[in-house]
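Data availability (excerpt). All sequences and predicted token strings are deposited with the supplementary files. A representative entry, Anion exchange transporter, is shown inline so that the format can be inspected without opening the archive.
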Amino acid sequence: MTGAKRKKKSMLWSKMHTPHCEDFKQWCRRRLPILEWAPQYNLRENLVPDTMSGIMLAVQQVTQGLAFAILSSVHPVFGLYGSLFPAIIYAIFGMGRHVATGTFALTSLISANAVERLVPLSSQNLTTQSNTSIVGLSDFEMQRIGVAAAVSFLGGVIQVAMFVLQLGSATFLLTEPVISAMTTGAATHVVTSQVKYLLGIKMPYISGPLGFFYIYAYVFENIKSVRLEALLLSLLSIVVLILVKELNEQFKRKIKVVLPVDLVLIIAASFACYCTNMEITYGLEVVGHIPKGIPPPRAPPMNVLSAVITEAFGVALVGYVASLALAQGSAKKYKYSVDDNQEFLAHGLSNVIPSFFFCIPSAAAMGRTAGLYSTGAKTQVACLISCVLILIVIYAIGPLLYWLPMCVLASIIVVGLKGMLIQFRDLKKYWNVDKIDWGIWVSTYVFTICFAANVGLLFGVVCTIAIVIGRFPRAKTLSIKNMKEMEFKVKTETDGETLQQVKIISINNPLVFLNAKKFHADLMNIIQKENANNQLLDDISKCEQNTLLNSLSNGNCNEEASQPCPSEKCFLILDCSGVTFFDYSGVSMLVEVYMDCKNRSVEISLAHCTASLIKAMKYCGNPDSENPVSFESVSAALSNIYSNKNLSKLSDHSEV
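Structure token line:
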């Protein structure tokens, strides 16, 4: 009896604890995505493209790290640290396979406000000039990186807190026009911040409201102080970079290895500056001394956290929004999913942990992600390989960058922002799809230019919500989730058999960013449920027929009779009479629904479409230019399906 009781207790204990172990494993896989893709990594197929992409990414990380550190008003070496540690953390916790986390122009601009406010350049003479024992830099430089690290730490804590509060579900408020306008405006700010290096002008730090215009006013007032040598070298660098990158893009299918023009330009400019002694001869500003090695970790100064709350919120929101847009774009392009809340955790830890290693705030950058696309990267292994090369630069090659001219570095940064700046072309698309989206884009861009990226982002979100709230009362119904279903059985005139079932779904709400994803999910659920029901009915009827036939012969179902018959094509009609208004996100989702249904062998037709909706769908990507998609009424769509079915049957009879 005692043994039986013990056995029973052990079984109960195992039942109680086995699910907990499984839940813990699932939790680890969900929160540590590297545990999902790393065991399935294919060395033969992925290692070579990841290695090539890692080499090119390392060049970008080094150049951007140096430039964005200077943009953040700290010593360039801290940009190298900021290109190393965040990339490692994101590779472990992030879900974007083509997202390269590191130094970022927008977060650097925001943190520079705190650095210049708390440790201004005028206080350099008040600090001791003796080098510290940590990295061989002055106390002034260490105070500055302390403030930047505090901004990174607090910004990461805010992102982790948003992950705990599950605020990733609120990202639907960040519409594409708002993100596009904010990133374009911030890129314009970055280009403006590099003007002093492109022209070789000594300029005080200018920030605050309308600081963008004050910078250009200062440049025009001191136009005579422009160094011609710096201007010519900047123009030459920009022309070479644009020309070679365009050639790489044109011939990337014919050549296996893309020319690393950034690396070649850095080596050539540094060598020329060293040989001709441009720093003294022409007065060109160079990067300067870069210490070797990585210092031991140290906590950021906690006494300044209360003074950098504003910048920390800006870093947390702007960095996350820009990074999430790149992760979602990568997931959409390569057909995988990204958890918005997990990205909060990944970027939060990518800011908190590196802040102990003297890193400036980090985020993903469009230029680096585009580089991973063009070089054929497969996984985050490319980012880890780039980290190995960055370590080599930190410990061996870093001091050789002393002679790199700042005007060349600024040229590399400006050309690297091309992807953000050409988003001006989206204005035509927004104007043709929804003029209100066009107005939101323009106003968000203006606010970003006049104030800052975080202010522009906040304005865009508030403006979008206010406009949608103002437009919704004009809708026929306030119900966003409910969709009316009707089923029809169409019978042929020739044999009287039941034709394929046609499902008609009436959309009784506007299609906007608020309900676009829900509309897609609900429609896919209906299609999957209908396919499952039809497949079950087909299998039952087929089995009943086979059973009846075989019972007359031998009483058993043979293997040939048990095989399911191929399913016929399904038809779906979307009644769009309730779509009283729409925006770009809604129209894009409607086109995406059409393509998804087409891939599932579901013929989709649209009824009661307004002329503006048809025009908007053409600009977002015409679903089918050969066959008619939109019809005046549901009956017209049914007649089209019926006539096509009869034509296909007639063609089958003629072939027989």
